[in-house]
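USER: Please consider what follows.
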Amino acid sequence: MLPDTFTYFSSEFIARGAVVEIEVRQRKLLGMVLSAAPVKDAKQHLRTASFILKKVGKIVSDIPILNSRDWAMLEWISGYYLTTPATVLRMLVPSFAVRGNATTTWERREEASEPQPAKFMVFAGALAEKRYPQLVAEAVSRTNQVLIIAPEISRAAELLDQLSLALPREKLLVATSAEPAARLRQHWRSIRRGAPAALIGSRLPLFFPFVNLGLIIIDDDGAPAHKSWDQEPRYHAREIALKLHELYGGALCLSGNPPSLAAYQAAKTDEKAAIVEVPQETLTPVSLFVEMDKEIKESGNFVTISQVLKDKLRSTMMDRGRAFLFVNRKGFAPFVLCQDCGYVFRCDQCSVPLVYHAQESFMHPTLLCHHCSAKNPAPDVCRQCGSHRLKPYGIGVERVAKEIKKLFPGAPVITISADEAKRPADIKKLSDRLTSIESYIAVGTEMALSGARLPPVELAAIISVDTALALPDYAQNERLFRILSLIRAIALKHFIFQSYAKEPEILRDLFHGSFEHFAEKELKERRKFSYPPFGELVKLTIQSPAREAALKSAKELHRSVTFMATRLAADSVEISPPYPAYVEKKKGQFIFHILVKILKPEKSMEIKELLNQYVPGDIRIDVGPMTLL
């Protein structure tokens, strides 16, 4: 693998940010100058260097691509998220922006004289998006640029349709991974020239070269998709937006139903910020909690659909209404059990049971691993004892859909999960179907609330989220409250929550529609243990094909990091012992985590610099992890 930065010499001065042609392993590549110094200042270093200094091939453009704000962003991201400047540079100057343009002379980019007056708003409510068109149109009319970040590509398309009512189409630019490179390059250069327009996308446009950024909107800021969890740097769109707001000024709007606790707390502590409650236009649905253990006692059997829910579904279908049943698991059942010896079929590469899928798209019943995608036909006999008494256990979206089809054979039943809609085109087709059919029962996972967004329904019900309630993660209550709030928000008449446990405390705030009460209570608990937003988390992930090797490496890393961190700032940091991941083995790798909790913001960059220095390059560093598990 090539290093991120190289050292060359030039017979003439080259400014930081200039584009040059360099030779690397007999290949000519484009590079950007990160820094330059007189040779005499670097002589001592060059004498001991392990490489021979080469000359820059030629200067492609001596006009810097980046301006002072870009450099400030580059330095901040590389320091905050513990990544290399070159990695950030590839985000600020993506391949589509320079592809096929090695000899292009770049236009000089204007520097805005001063940041605009800053304004910070948090919109709370299901109809917060109704405020977007007016805000965006006003900003563009003042020759400002606008940035709108959606959690998914499909959501960006929805926002484009809404904003088209307020702005001409040529003022609306879309930048997502689904767009062709030529169009992205056109938009990138248009923004760089300072064209007043609204740029809509999902994370990608955060790094476009703005000139006069007057408004930033982060739509559904609590959505998990705003976090770059699968590639470096593992940034969060909200944090990048806050930094852009600091650099450019203008207005920042964090919007959600509910907004994230991070957004809520940030607005509370900012004297100039406003938390704007956007009221619903519909009546609050009648909410009902159903204890499923009573249903089991009365029927004598395990039941998935309570009698109350059956009755409400029946009346909804008779009135030609729509219903949505939420199930938080894909597939038919979470595992298959041998009823004679208790054997559970597990993935060979991951430490999890294989999920039983019975849907038609698999041609025949299938056992599938949701972590490594290993797939096998469902067996007829037990691998351990040879028994034929195998049974799928637990509740999945397919099982609920099958039961609903039996209960209501005449009703259209639509299943919504990633198994049915893997591509943006599939999601669009599914969304159109949900909107066009007058009456149906939809059974879906969280995808129904994000990608294929459901229209309002007369009845919404939670089949079971008991497993989610039991997850030992500091942010789990917030995640669950968000999901339940989104489901309740689409219910026009009735909202039913089924549980095999006692009524969870989180429901009281949900039923009373009190996000503020929930937020204050949750933030009080987080403050007690210095969890975000009152402390900062960095998760170090160690993995190896052998469990002993992974644990040994984790213990060694823990010793070295603890020793150095406590010497530097003993009262400003807490470091957990190594602990196994919730899914300890994934894709053949055993996984251990170390959690670094930074207690004092003023020590953050210092502690991160230490981590950057002592954590080996093969260890994954996640600043602000979405989960500790």
Q: What stands out?
A: The chain has a mean pLDDT of 88.
